[in-house]
Amino acid sequence: MNKFRILFLAAISSISLSAQKKENKANVFELQNPDYKISPQTGMTKQHWKDAALYLLEGAFSYIHKLDDPMQFPKQEGKSYPSNPNQVPTEKLEGLCRTLFIASPLLKENPDLVINNIKVADYYRYQIAKLADPQSPTYIEPRAKNAGPNQKLVEFGALSLSLLTNADVLWKPLPQNQKDDLAKIMISYGDGPTVDSNWKFFNIFVLSFFKEQGYTVNEKLLVEYLEKSLKHYRGNGWYNDSPAFDYYSMWAFQMYGNIWSEFFGKKYYPEIAAKFMSNFSDLKNNYPYLFSKDGEMIMWGRSISYRIGAVVPFPLMGFQNDPDINYGWMRRIASGVIKQFLTHPDFMKDNVPTLGFYGEFEPAVQNYSCRGSVYWMGKIFMGLLVPDNNPFWISKENNGDWDTIFKKDEVYNKYQGDSQILITDYPNIGASEVRAWCHEKVKDDWQKFRSTENYNRLSYNSAFPWQADGQNGEVAMNYVIKNKNEQWEAFRLFTFKKFENGIYYRNVVLETDENIKFDLADIPLANGILRIDKNNSDKVVSMRLGHYALPKLDKEIVTTKKNIAGHEVTIIDNGKYQVAMIRLLGWDKTEVVKAKGLHPQSNESSVINVLSDTKSNKTKIYATLMLWKKSGENWNKSELLPVKIVDQTNDVVTIQFNNGKSKAVSFLIKKLD
How confident is the model at residue 9, as a pLDDT? Predict the structure, then answer.
């Protein structure tokens, strides 16, 4: 009986999984009539961008059957809100204002758009007006006199951005009394306190839109927030988001500055607009290198559920009409990222994008997000405001430097200066990689994301999305240390020192024990990374270091072990990529660690870890090769052992490459400072 029951349940489970896969496949965005003449890499034209926007909007409107229905979607289990009824009005506000990013550019071209038998423009005008109706369940009260900034300011800033760029459809048809009521409420938030981050732009857009419409606004505060926003700039296209650098600190600041300048600033504050546009111009020489050859983005930083929003600066380059911009490459990257997610079978659930990276992934979710938050990604469709005949749309797609400059068996680093970011490109697998800021204590991280895997990995790679840490010491692309409480604790308090001679230097201290501290040196190679790290701790340390993890895909992950010149080589292969780890100095042993529920691409994954239990409190050098190739490619001995240690002291390690060149990794204090 039990055997029959088990077989029955297994069959039901199999049918359920099969049905889910079919549902997911049916839910995937499909390119209709791709144009491989103008877009040989992706097949996508401006029309396909409109199709993608419509695909997302149709999913949202599957919940709208009459004008009174709010943009409210099924909650995803986990830390996302709402967690109490008081948060529901803000949840509905997010759904409304964020889906409007997708709808507004479509309505600008087609004001009569109908979805699910609903006139889309009528719906948004009706719902916007209801925000100022005290009798409406979606009513938003004016900001209290002494109230601080909150999520309502964010959403009103978002709404103002759409209104500023499409007032003819969304604003002008409203009766004057509704306009006045909305102005009173929205200005109460815009003319108020903000957060010292990209949030200042939410105030800026509210005040700018209503000034454009003839309302009296606090122009002194508007200029103050504009000037303070400019002070976040750190060069090479990067703004600092107090304190973080991530995708969002690039694309949000740059998009806001560009849209504000184009639709308002050039008319009213031309000198400030010129500064924003000068900063925007800097990104063309840096930001494209953060994406893979195939136009894929790295899983890195907070709010990764916004996904395709990260590429909005590329179409907005069209407003510059700059002959120095390779527009075909910019569109190739942007279209590639759109396809990266919209064509993935796990991207949509219940007709709505999941909170996660590809599918649902709780470790990457922030507690300020609700299900409708994902439509922040709709900002990519602000690119549709760029005219049809613009070079961004009509230039032939190409792979840019990946085809014209990058060479096989080489590695390319682009150090970003004051932001201390390092972008690395690997032509052999077409992957991009980034190293950036992380220095946040768990005890100070009240929102619980800047101290996590979103930021605390040693590096982030487009080919290998980050894996979350496990309770048993499972770790990918970071160290974990056995702390005083006998728990595995990841490094997160990194301090950048310098980038010199192709070596990226950092120091790190364990949060719960300042006497556990390391000097770190990353050396990107053609097929991976060489790590030379110095343990400066004054006590015995039990530690693990992880490579990038591989998800289980269509077949089992295969482990292979070899011995090259006395060094043990451990390789794992998932059918798409293979990664290898080689201990050169210091480490005791190597393990392949299997995990469940920690990887964003699969429930099952594997990662190679090296382990050490130091025998004394003396400083010690650890050297590790962390390599990769595409699956099916053979390794030769020189690829598995591309370097050798030729000299070592406590402070300087000299390495020699197979081509005869050498580098000295120096941890001398006088050189680091």
Answer: 38
Which amino acid appears at position 665 of this protein?
A: V
Residue type, 501: N
Mean pLDDT of 248-252: 93
Residue reference for tokens 């007709």: 351
Q: Rounded to whole angstroms, how far apart are CA atoms 580 and 527?
A: 10
H-only helix segments in 131-269? 151-165, 167-170, 176-190, 200-212, 219-230, 247-260, 266-268
115: nearest Cα among 55, 32, 33: 55
- Cα–Cα distance for residue pair 252/264, rounded to 1 Å: 17
Distance between alpha carbon 446 and the CA centroid of its chain, in Å? 21
Alpha-carbon span 73 to 372, nearest angstrom = 7
CA distances from 294 to 27, 56, 396, 432, 650 (A): 23, 23, 15, 10, 42
What value does the CA radius of gyration of the chain take, rounded to a whole number of Å? 26
pTM assigned to the model:
0.94
* Tens of pLDDT, residues 606-618: 999 999 998 777 7
Percent of the chain with pLDDT over 70: 95
Q: Kindly report the backbone phi and psi dihedral angles of residue 551, in degrees, each rounded to the nearest multiple of 5, phi listed first.
A: -80, 150
Cβ 248 vs Cβ 303: under 8 Å:
yes
Counting beta carbons within 10 angstroms of the beta carbon of residue 330, is it exposed (0 to 12), middle (13 to 18) or buried (19 or more)?
Answer: buried
Q: Residue 12 above 50 pLDDT?
A: no
Does residue 266 have a pLDDT over 70?
A: yes
Q: Determine if the peptide bond prior to 105 is cis (ω within 30°).
A: no
- The SS3 assignment for 542 reads strand
3-state SS string for 465-500: CCCCCCCCCCCCCCEEEECCCCCEEECCEEEEEEEE
> What's the count of helices (H) and strands (E) in the chain, helices before strands?
18, 25
CA end-to-end span of the chain: 72
pLDDT at 22 over 60: no
